[in-house]
UniProtKB/TrEMBL annotation:
GO terms for molecular function: ATP binding; ATP hydrolysis activity; branched-chain amino acid transmembrane transporter activity. Keywords: Amino-acid transport, ATP-binding, Nucleotide-binding, Transport. SUPFAM superfamilies: P-loop containing nucleoside triphosphate hydrolases. This is ABC transporter ATP-binding protein. It holds the Pfam family ABC_tran. Belongs to the ABC transporter superfamily. One of its GO terms (biological process) is L-amino acid transport. The lineage of its organism: Bacteria, Bacillati, Actinomycetota, Actinomycetes, Propionibacteriales. Residues 2-207 form the ABC transporter domain. The keyword Nucleotide-binding applies. The keyword Transport applies. It comes from the Bacteria.
Amino acid sequence: MLHITDLVVRYGSAVALDGVSLNVGRGEMVALVGPNGAGKSTLINTVSGLLKPASGSVVVEGTVAQVPEGRQMFPDMSVEDNLLLGGWSIRNRQLDEVFDLLPDLAGMRRRKAGRLSGGQQQMVAIGRALMARPDLLAIDELSLGLAPIVVDELAEHLRYLNTERGTAVLLVEQEVTLAFNLCARACVLEAGRVVVTGPSSELAESD
Ligand code: ADP
Ligand code: ADP
């Protein structure tokens, strides 16, 4: 449902992605790993439409929503208002659906987002992306700054979402163990190029 072909993305004259091809199937969870500066964020931002390719193509069959790096809350607004920021017209149905998927959010809906823990904020960021009812959820750094136990809980929610809704996931993640556990397939990027794509179990063995 996601087809990336020969993708080139530049910042000015600097080439951040240099001919990347990657496919994600319907309902598949794929991890995007690699060192700092490899182009992971650039790739996910291009999939979400925030960046324009210099050449090549990104085709998404369906809706994509992004959980941005650093979560990007509006700290003085309530959880509910953070969820509603997209201006969804059928707000209540959408909210109820998201609260069904992430029940913890219902209990904190009136709280200011800026007062929440990092893990709770990440849940809000995921919930906000789910308001778009995405077929593909693109997540930039699920675990950033969070304790492992909190990350495990978030990962459990993503598994549930994937099983229950068939939502595909493209996960940029520094924590390779987490990425490989959550996603059956992984793509390793280095210096703007795909080094290898394959089953996470095989990539884990070969380091
Ligand atoms: P990663 O997410 O894997 O750490 P990025 O996609 O953030 O990698 O960055 C890929 C390359 O593009 C790096 O060399 C980085 O310095 C560069 N880059 C990222 N964002 C910008 C930007 N806004 N302007 C210029 N260069 C950028
Ligand atoms: P990550 O690689 O995890 O996305 P970075 O530290 O590379 O984080 O980037 C943080 C922010 O700085 C991003 O918004 C990115 O676009 C921007 N950025 C990264 N590298 C450059 C660069 N060389 N010039 C300008 N902006 C950059």
